[in-house]
Amino acid sequence: MSEPGAIVRVEEVTKTYEQGRVEVQALRGLDLDVYSGELTALYGPSGSGKTTLLNLIGALDVPTSGRIAIEGRDLGDLGRRELSHLRRDRIGFVFQAYNLIPVLTAYENAETVLALQGVDAKERAARVGELFREMGLDGLEDRRPDELSGGQQQRVAIARAIAADPAVVLADEPTANVDSETAERLLDIMEKLNSERGVTFIFSTHDPRVMERARRLVRIVDGRVDGDEIRKSEPPSG
Amino acid sequence: MGWAQMTRVAWRNLWRNGRRTVLTLASIAFGLLLAVLMTAMQDRNWADMIDLAARLGGGHVTVQHVDFREAPTLAKTVTGVEEVSARALADPEVTHVAIRVVGQVLLSTASSSRGAGFVGIDPDRESPSTLGIIESLVEGEMLPSAEGGGIVLGAGLADNLRLTLGKKVVYNMTDRHGEIIAGLARLTGIVRTGSPSVDNGLALLPLNTMRQALGYDATEATQVAVFIDDQRRSDEVAARLALTLAPTAAALPWHTSQPQLAAFIAMKVGGANFMKILIAVLIAAGIFNTLFVSVTERMREFGIMLAIGYSPGDIRSLVMLESTWLGLVGLVVGALLTAGPYLYLNAHGIDVTAMIGEGNVDVAGIGISPVMKVEIFPVNAVFIAVAAFMATIAAGIYPAWRAGRVAPVETIRLV
């Protein structure tokens, strides 16, 4: 059963899709709590429901039954506009294919969420500038995504995801499209953000390197939690 | 996201597929070129026709007996025409006034007879601004005064009567009492306007000679022709003038005194408006196509944007801003594309004499110049610009709505 104080709470969630005439049960009564500062990796075979679970936690889809709450707010109680604001203010996304907005520069991509929040330009410059320095993106501010390498794009995507200080960052296979060296660097950055800034990450992954770095491993099989292992001590908060 | 940033993003999005955007802008600009030149040609030609009709007939506003329209006989006169003329000239919009007697006449020579319309004029009070055919004198001279026995004929009429300069012609007409009167005149001049109705059917006679022949007193005439600079103001001027007239006189704007011409112009304007609507629809269709394809191509991107915190309203606004940019840039490009041809045609026009043949430029009985110039009324230029811009905005509504309806989970493989 769920415990109080979780940032992400998933209770008895089911999700059924219709693919043509076939009904697919992607999640079958899944429970999961994620706490502040965790670096959680969801793993399991393809089709086990990892992506579906991230979709639901990210308020991009709605469960067939059950309840999902972010910082105590039940997503089922929120309208479209409130869900938009929740995604903007409390959830960060890192996509497998980076998915930066192609017409924006690296800097503009990173500050997008802050701009949507109405943060003033000076504050945005300070926060994004600090992140760029931390993540080794100095000097790349004015480049468009197509002028950046895959690793650079993913770092900008991470900066975009955490710039607004979300409660949780959801990352789907964040290392899948980059080479080993770049993957290690990205994991270094995310691990550092987790340990130094207390950013909460939930990964969906097949990558052993990600699982090795995760502090918590949640195995998903057939739409249910099949294993939940705390592997390392939690980082100090803040 | 602030409007400034959103506007910047919309501008950049426009140029993601530069060729498509350029083609769309070209279609907007070409549509504007067509709409402006078509409207400008009509504005100029209709205004010219109305002015010509006014200078041939009763002015932009005609003061005549209240019953003259229904029963146009020489018994229906206006008295005190000098006072009427003075009151008209006191109106700030009135530029010229001419006092005339108009009616039908039978002209006879030893070899032929022809019916014609006649205008009794005082040549000292007429000018090309009040009587356009003065400029079309090709032989002889105008009537020397409001008295005397001179006559000026259209070239076709003179030919039909086999009349040459200095020769005599007998005129017959019905006076105010219904009696037939006759007079003798000597041909002093011949006009050739290119309009068959004028060249084959018009005679100018001295005003006072006509008054005497018809038994009018010195302040009596059938018509006071009032001229203004802008024919579109004829209703207002007529209404003001009517307030100063005796109950037996009426002030009619040109479209009332020349209903055939008004109907012709109204019909043409209606057709032209339909063409303009068609052009607006074509412009809108081009923009719709561009935006819709552009939106369809970016569904995944919109899904990503919604996932990271853009609201559906933000996405809709973004697409509408792209549509707005297309409209604004289209207007600028359209203005640049139109300026050259417009200025050239405004200054030089197109001579269509070779196409229609000399002497055939006559519409609703009104001769028009075979050189087609353009000049758009500012209000019409503004209307076209606003209509084109509104068409671009309207064309963006559905693509914007569609973009705002994107379900992120269906367009992206999460996160």
Explain what you see:
The complex is a heterodimer of chains A (238) and B (415). By secondary structure, chain A is an alpha/beta fold. In chain A, a hairpin with a 2-residue loop joins strand 9 and strand 10. The longest helix of chain A is centred in the last third of the chain and has 18 residues. In chain A, helix 3 runs parallel beside helix 5. Chain A is built from seven helices and ten strands. Chain B has 415 residues and is an alpha+beta fold. In chain B, helix 2 packs across helix 11 and helix 2 runs antiparallel to helix 13. Chains A and B meet through helix 1, helix 2, strand 6, helix 3 and strand 7 of A and helix 1 and helix 10 of B.
Give descriptors for this structure.
heterodimer, A: 238 residues, alpha/beta, six-stranded mixed β-sheet, four-stranded antiparallel β-sheet, B: 415 residues, alpha+beta, six-stranded mixed β-barrel, two-stranded antiparallel ribbon, 14 helices, 16 strands, 51% helix, 20% strand
Short summary of the structure?
Chain A is built from seven helices and ten strands. By secondary structure, chain A is an alpha/beta fold. The model of chain A has no long low-confidence stretch (mean pLDDT 89).
Strand line-up in the sheet with most strands of chain A: 6-7-8-3-9-10
Low-confidence stretches of chain B: none
First-to-last CA distance of chain A:
27 Å
Strand percentage of chain B, roughly? Answer: 15-25%
Q: What is the percent of helical residues of chain A? A: 25-40%
Largest interface: A-B, 37 and 25 residues
Number of β-strand runs of chain A = 10
What is the tally of helical segments of chain A? 7
Order of helices and strands of chain B: HHEEHEEEEHEEHEHEEHEHHHHEHEEEHH
The main pleated sheet of chain B reads as: 6 strands, mixed, barrel
Topology, number of strands of chain B: 16
Query: What is the ordering of alpha helices and beta strands of chain A?
Result: EEEHEEHEHHHEHEHEE
In DSSP terms, counting alpha (H) and pi (I) runs of 4 or more, how many helices of chain B? Answer: 14
- The backbone outline of chain B, from C-alpha atoms, is elongated
